[in-house]
UniProtKB/TrEMBL annotation, chain A:
GO terms for molecular function: acyltransferase activity. The keyword Transferase applies. Residues 1-76 form the Lipoyl-binding domain. Residues 86-117 are annotated as: Disordered. This is Dihydrolipoamide acetyltransferase component of pyruvate dehydrogenase complex. Keywords: Acyltransferase, Lipoyl, Transferase. Belongs to the 2-oxoacid dehydrogenase family. The keyword Transferase applies. It holds the Pfam family E3_binding. PANTHER family: DIHYDROLIPOAMIDE ACETYL/SUCCINYL-TRANSFERASE-RELATED, DIHYDROLIPOYLLYSINE-RESIDUE ACETYLTRANSFERASE COMPONENT OF PYRUVATE DEHYDROGENASE COMPLEX, MITOCHONDRIAL-RELATED. Its cofactor is (R)-lipoate.
Automatic annotation (TrEMBL), chain B:
Coiled coil: none annotated. Signal peptide: none annotated. Residues 5-80 form the Carrier domain. This is Acyl carrier protein. SUPFAM superfamilies: ACP-like. Pfam families: PP-binding. It comes from the Bacteria. It comes from Corallincola platygyrae.
Length: 426, 81
């Protein structure tokens, strides 16, 4: 039997609220299957299974606030039977004498002798008028004065998704109702365009707060030092143009992929930049789990993590990048997409300013900023030529490394940039 | 495919990629990526969608010829004929 615990989404998250169970006792899950929706300080995020097995117990109730690390469900491993003791427990939970108000004060036990109280998902009465819907959909529906029972859900199991609510709003059938029903004092919140809210599963206001908390902590605790260097990307661009020439659109490699790949490979030689600073001590990471900052159209940004970038082939990396970026933009990132990066890259993209100096995301100790690729005059072998260049910056934690170390790291990136074909052969 | 139908299709795909964009705010003669704040991944998805819907190929080397909606229509119409 394994515990599924309240996951941590960022170092400043202390607790989460379970807003939806997407499984019930007895359901079989495999790695990556959605289990629950957790409302965090950044908005609603789907928790996906890390292991295979069957759900043996749900330990928290919808709406319940749970500290990070506390078990929220029990998972029976494959072959393991869901014991009769479990069933007894389940029954006991629904008994009328259960005092749920005690639960929040109870000390977080490793394995609670008595599970903390689910009743809603398991009782017939509750299920009858329980309308499955995502948290973002609920929120928008409530804000717009729409009853969930009036909406036809198109999500898994008929769940109402944000798109369903949006669709209804777009038709205009209900917007006038909400305008007349809502007190004028709330007009300002009502006037937030549905589409802006609907951008993603993240709540823009909550996300602003979360970003604010993270960068404030970073600038308060981490003594940053900054380095910058302009690198010649002509060879890489040339190599990519050749590779992409006869390839169908979705198989083309974007410039960012080989850049992330070579940064990850360089990090293996500079382990003091790749890892976590916790309790006054730096612990290097063995793999490069690289967060790639993605700008959201509605505002804000998310940092989905690309796994083991140092070991990925370019094709695999590009696929991972496409999948995770699409989830980020749709607001459907899962916890496993965001969990525990060891390093971050932030980029301006190929339209915009020439350099960006990132703020380190604690407990990481460094971030690379990629500026917009551009043409510039450079001197090569004593001759003035026009080259394609990119300004690459490093912000790093001075408690862990010094400028000299960081400088060598940037030069290592430059060296690898001049042999782009190696990235496809390693 | 008629130019008008092509235009509608491209706008439809643009909105799939950037759901906050309204059909009537897609400019005909401005750089789409700047006007609609599309990143390179968004543009790649647009090119892929156009390919899927029309069978017409826009190689990467021609991206600079299709930056504006009108340009993209000219390019695709010429290619289809």
């Amino acid at each position: 039997m394994k515990e599924i615990t309240m996951p941590s989404f960022g170092s400043d998250m202390e607790q989460g609220v379970l807003t939806e169970w997407q499984v019930k006792v007895g359901d079989e899950v495999k790695r990556g299957d959605p289990i629950a929706v957790i409302e965090t300080h950044k908005g609603a995020i789907e928790l996906d299974a890390f292991d295979e097995g069957a759900i043996a117990q749900l330990l928290v109730q919808v709406g319940e606030q749970t500290p990070v690390g506390q078990p929220i469900a029990m998972l029976a491993e494959p072959g393991e039977e869901i014991t009769s003791a479990t069933t007894v427990d389940q029954k006991r939970e629904t008994a009328p004498d259960l005092d749920t108000s005690v639960a929040p004060d109870a000390p977080p036990a490793k394995v609670p002798a008595k599970p903390i109280a689910p009743r809603a998902p398991n009782t017939a009465v509750a299920t009858a008028d329980f309308q499955p819907a995502t948290p973002a959909a609920r929120k928008l529906a409530a804000k717009s004065g729409i009853l969930l029972s009036d909406i036809k859900g198109t999500g898994p199991g008929g769940a109402i998704t944000l798109v369903d609510v949006e669709g209804l709003l777009a038709i205009g059938g209900v917007s006038s109702v909400s305008a007349t029903d809502s007190p004028s004092s709330e007009k300002t919140t009502e006037s937030v365009p549905a589409k802006a809210v609907a951008q993603s599963g993240f709540d823009p206001a909550m996300m602003r707060e979360a970003i604010s908390a993270t960068v404030t902590r970073s600038k308060r605790e981490i003594p940053h030092y900054y380095l910058s260097h302009t690198l010649d990307i002509s060879k890489l661009e040339q190599h990519l143009a050749e590779r992409n020439a006869d390839v169908e659109p979705l198989k083309r490699t974007l410039l960012i992929a080989p850049l992330l790949s070579l940064i990850a490979r360089a990090l293996i030689k500079f382990p003091q930049l790749n890892g976590h600073y916790r309790d006054g001590q730096f612990v290097p990471s063995e793999v490069v789990d690289m967060a790639n900052a993605v700008n959201l159209r509605g505002g804000g940004l998310v940092m989905p993590v690309l796994r083991q970038v140092d070991k990925s082939s370019m094709e695999a990396l590009m696929q991972q990048l496409q999948a995770v970026t699409e989830r980020a933009k749709q607001g459907s990132l899962k916890f496993s997409d965001l969990d525990n990066p060891s390093f971050t890259v932030t980029s301006i993209g190929d339209r915009g300013v020439e350099s960006i100096l990132g703020v380190i995301y604690p407990p990481q100790v460094a971030i690379v900023g990629l500026g917009c690729p551009r043409s510039d005059v450079v001197v090569v072998d004593g001759e003035i030529t026009v080259s394609r260049v990119m300004t690459v910056t490093l912000s790093a934690d001075h408690r862990v490394t010094d400028g000299h170390y960081g400088s060598r790291f940037l030069m290592e990136i430059n060296k690898r940039l001049q042999k782009p074909e190696a990235l496809w052969n390693e | 495919m008629e130019r008008v139908a092509l235009r509608e299709m491209i706008i439809e795909e643009l909105i799939n990629i950037a759901p906050d964009v309204e059909a009537d705010e897609v400019p005909d003669d401005e750089d789409l990526r700047d006007a609609l704040d599309l990143d390179s991944m968004d543009f790649m998805r647009l090119v892929a969608a156009v390919h899927k819907r029309t069978g017409l190929e826009i190689p990467e080397a021609d991206y600079r010829k299709v930056l504006e909606l009108d340009q993209m229509l000219d390019y695709l119409v010429a290619k289809a004929s």
